[in-house]
Amino acid sequence: MIQSRPRAAATYGAAFAAALVVLTGCSSAASGLHSMSATGASTPAPSPDPLAWSACGKNLECATIKVPQEYTDPEGAQIPLAVMRHRATDPGHRIGSLIFNPGGPGVSATETLRNLPKTAGTPGAFSPAVLAAFDIVAMDPRGVGESQAVHCLTDEQRAEAAGTDFDPAIPGGKPLPQLLADAATFTDGCAKHQSKKFLASLSTDNVARDIDQVRSALGEAKLTYYGLSYGTVVGPMYATLFPHRVRQMVLDAPVDTNQWFGNPLPFQNDVAVASERTLDAWFTTCRTEGTTVCPFGAGDPQAAFDTLIDTLEAKPLKIAPAEGAAQGGELDGAMALEATRALAGDQNTWPLLTSALLAAQKGNGAPLYTLWSSVTVSPFPVPTAMFETHTAVRCADWNTPSGIAAHKTAATKAVTEAKRIGPRAAYSALNCARWPAPNRDRVDKPLTGAGAPPALVVGGRLDPVTPHHWAETMTRTLDSAVLLTREGVGHGSYGINTCVGKAVDAALLHGTRPADGTVCKTDAPATTRPLFPAKR
Length: 536
Known about the structure:
The chain is an alpha/beta fold. 40% of the residues lie in helices and 15% in strands. It has helices spanning 14-24, 109-115, 128-133, 155-162, 176-193, 196-200, 204-218, 231-241, 257-260, 264-289, 301-314, 333-344, 350-361, 366-374, 385-397, 404-417, 422-425, 430-433, 468-477, 498-510; strands at 34-36, 42-44, 54-57, 60-68, 78-86, 96-101, 134-139, 223-228, 246-252, 317-319, 329-331, 455-462, 481-489, 518-520. The protein has a 10-stranded mixed sheet, sandwiched between helices. It has a two-stranded antiparallel sheet with strand order 1-2. It is globular. Residues 1-42 have low confidence and may be disordered.
């Protein structure tokens, strides 16, 4: 990660609708570009040909760009990257191209761009003013989406992993020997199905160099950039390697890049604690609002939740197939905990969480099961193809301890500091500990962006994936930046908060930023009131 993230309310899409059904019952750039190696030495990079665009949707154009697999060998192997753009809706007042990265790593930027018009009101949804002034450009990073997505498991292995019975009380969900065996299967699969040289090339510094190749092919002297979550690792990397190519930059839900390129075990612990805090916020709000508003737990939602998880783990609920909903199966405690973790991380989905928990208490596990099936992005291991790409990118970047003792210590710490979510985080870096394609020339120096314009850093007060202190650290690490804080619970702020929206638009369009330390209040107070009155 960072990091993958739980889906925001509007992006659960069909899963939300299905859950409701079961609840209710019904100019040319200069040639000879240079990129910087880890040692600071410059290496000539080829000047790409202009992009050959073809229509691929309403106001959308698609193209492919070939870039060096390794910039230390610019004339060597080339890899194709998928690029998409949404043309500025007011060409007469066009400012330029805006590159965005929606995070993950592992989230397809092109797919996100294609779906943005359908997901207004979710993090990263651009305002009409921004859409009018910029060509919004999405590049699937190497190893992601349509840019040769990494696959390490066969369909059968992935299906088998998806059917695994996890125990929420055990760090990592399984006994350690099984976790080690799973890591061996995963990494052996990566080595078998992927080129090790390709895997080693997936680092963020190469993604930043790829973006500069796209900039050149677009004929732009400078780029405007918006990054969300892991996109806030890519942005500072680009600003550090190519500071004079940055026009403006906004970094939303920022990652602590010092931790990202350092030891990932404390990093993962921070994520677990952040997620636990958002669940605690739901508990506190439910208790404070009282049983008339939040009947779950009859005044003690924490105890009721723990009892529900234990009960479901001991005796899972049978889920019958339902039209428009997930396939039938069973809802156990681990699945209920994962769905709750995702929903608690966005205060807009709290009413749905309350409704689903109440239903499960009454023996109807379909809402939670349907929502669990939609959680395809997570900061912790989930058996999906997206997790394979997520893991490959972070392993190329991370400096992961290889000794199991460090992972045991980190697991103990996570479970101690985040008793419900900590077990989910435990041992989640084992794949990187035995990664078969070490990246020996990654850039891991502080990403200061020295020489680039001041960046706008936007951090949520209670972010379930990127805690607020990471935003504070990024603001200090960058040579020039201002911090804007959004109150409330949620991952990502632009597109879901009016105050943040105005500030981000001003930064992107005009290069003006709020005073450092400005705070935006939530548009609406958080509530745990269920979507439907509880049946008595």
